[in-house]
Amino acid sequence: MKKVKIDYPCRWVYKVIGLDQDRMRAAITELIPDGDCVITTSRSSVTGRYHCLNIDKPVKNEDDRVSLYEACVTPGDQNRSMKKKKSRKETD
Fold this sequence. Notes:
The protein is α+β, with helices and mostly antiparallel strands. Helix content is 28%, strand content 30%. The protein has a four-stranded antiparallel beta sheet with strand order 2-3-1-4.
């Protein structure tokens, strides 16, 4: 599989999926204490049990981008789940 070239710095969008939006927002605030991100509601499941938030954050380099992803998928933490999404630059 061919690796995608990412031009840094850029904005990157992460998806956080979980059961409790307030706890998810609090966890994101702990991970990004400087507030250097925009958190928006993406969608909720039909039953309202699962919720998805977007984290739109500037990243300086590959390590910066991957470190937040890795922090959000800590094993054993069933309240946080993270999926990567292409940056806006990649989709343009």
